Amino acid sequence: MLPKKLQKKLDARKAMQALRALRPAANLVDFSSNDYLGFSSDSNLAQKITARAQAILKEEQLIANGATGSRLLSGNHKLYARTEERLADFHKAESALVFNSGYDANVGFFQSVPQRGDLILYDEYIHASIRDGIQMSLARGYKFKHNDIASIKELVSRLREIHHLDDQEGAIELYLVTESVFSMDGDTPDLLAIADICIKYGIHLIIDEAHATAVLGPQGAGLVQELHLEDKVFARIVTFGKGIGAHGAAILGSEALRSYLVNFARSFIYTTGLPPHSLAVILSAYEQLLESTNEDAPEVVNLCKLITHFKDEIQRLALDELFIESNSAIHCGVIRGNDAVKTLSRKLKENNFNVKPILSPTVPEGQERLRICLHAYNSKDEVTQLLELIKSQL
């Protein structure tokens, strides 16, 4: 029997029309997954990447189905070094350290790097994994308004005055974390302005590139590289479960940071490593990115054209006030109320479109939304049909 306190929380979720449940994947037109380029689900690309991954395993004479232990014990098979070297080179970083997931990477970083007395500044819409890491940290966290440069400046000024940072001589370190593309809204902060603030005040800048990896920047290297901010960022988190179409993540930074994480990041130390096959798929996907530039990579070109078409269509259909401004593959239409957004999502499903509702408390009450993810394998006709259907239901 479930404890009464837990049952009460479940009952409250039901009353809010916000109870989560696991359901089989729907065979519908995909406007829901994070497989932006189709590396995982496009049949031709997926087969090509899988075949190359098998060839990599054969080259390295690796047949194990699992890592067999943590990387500090028996799990540090030779594909790790090859993958991390590739990642560091591709992303123009001094080093890379692979984690089992983006969640593990963010929790491990924020649990271990900021120390007691340090201060963490974070965007109010930052990902849950970063929030969880901050909660586990001995440092104190302070949020600023979403993508608001004035709010960041005000917070930095206030904290510097409260903690007398000019007199501390490095005793208190400041960390600022944001995302290059936010997972719920698909919008982007002014990273150049944020980097300038961090340089001016000696703040360590961390950027989560989960939803930019493989989609934005030169050959999908991310927004940090598109803006040439590699040397101005203390750490970058890139993940492989979205545009790369695989699994896992990596933290990019200095060799010293890598060594520190190997010694102190608990989500790295106390978990079994990724199996060789996972690393081979990551390597294969990055080879696919390296094969062509953004100008002649059809999957990147198709996605960019589709994003432009989507934005043109929301203007044509006068839906621009419904949707949050975004130039990424993620587009969100705010439909207030869990019941209302679930009803619209269900109507879209009945018409063969898989679009997921994002409910409170995942987002603040009154900010419930449809989250539409665009992919290189979606067609312009599908986008138009989807938006016309949404328009007809409002």
TrEMBL record:
<dbReference type="GO" id="GO:0030170">
    <property type="term" value="F:pyridoxal phosphate binding"/>
</dbReference>
<comment type="similarity">
    <text>Belongs to the class-II pyridoxal-phosphate-dependent aminotransferase family. BioF subfamily.</text>
</comment>
<dbReference type="Pfam" id="PF00155">
    <property type="entry name" value="Aminotran_1_2"/>
</dbReference>
<feature type="domain" description="Aminotransferase class I/classII large">
    <location>
        <begin position="27"/>
        <end position="389"/>
    </location>
</feature>
<keyword id="KW-0663">Pyridoxal phosphate</keyword>
<dbReference type="InterPro" id="IPR015424">
    <property type="entry name" value="PyrdxlP-dep_Trfase"/>
</dbReference>
<dbReference type="InterPro" id="IPR050087">
    <property type="entry name" value="AON_synthase_class-II"/>
</dbReference>
<protein>
    <submittedName>
        <fullName>8-amino-7-oxononanoate synthase</fullName>
    </submittedName>
</protein>
<dbReference type="InterPro" id="IPR004839">
    <property type="entry name" value="Aminotransferase_I/II_large"/>
</dbReference>
<dbReference type="InterPro" id="IPR015421">
    <property type="entry name" value="PyrdxlP-dep_Trfase_major"/>
</dbReference>
<dbReference type="GO" id="GO:0009102">
    <property type="term" value="P:biotin biosynthetic process"/>
</dbReference>
<keyword id="KW-0808">Transferase</keyword>
<dbReference type="GO" id="GO:0016740">
    <property type="term" value="F:transferase activity"/>
</dbReference>
<dbReference type="InterPro" id="IPR015422">
    <property type="entry name" value="PyrdxlP-dep_Trfase_small"/>
</dbReference>
